[in-house]
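Structure (tokenized):
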């Protein structure tokens, strides 16, 4: 059985509209702790995320996710920023 990709989104696109594009496990905007709860192997797309400094996804958590074998993809707001910050490690 194939594992669905996990997609964190919010304001950029609704989950209903996104389902028309890709069959995936759609979740609320990414926040601290979300990536730590995903077991590899998994493809994870980060489109939107919580911007509050207390709940924002730390780069260290994204680095750990990559080291554990998650494949991370970033787009739009939070995802694009995170992708550019972590370009050096994949």
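Design, position by position:
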């Amino acid at each position: 059985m194939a594992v669905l990709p996990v997609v964190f989104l919010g304001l950029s696109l609704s989950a209903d509209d996104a389902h028309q594009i890709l069959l995936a496990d759609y979740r609320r905007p990414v926040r601290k702790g979300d990536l730590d709860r995903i077991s590899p192997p998994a493809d994870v797309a980060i489109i939107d995320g919580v911007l509050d400094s207390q709940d924002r996804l730390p780069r260290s958590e994204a680095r750990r996710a990559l080291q554990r074998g998650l494949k991370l993809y970033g787009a739009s707001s939070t995802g694009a920023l995170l992708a550019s910050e972590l370009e050096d490690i994949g």
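Reviewer-requested clarification: The chain has a mean pLDDT of 89. Residues 1 and 41 are 13 Å apart (CA to CA).
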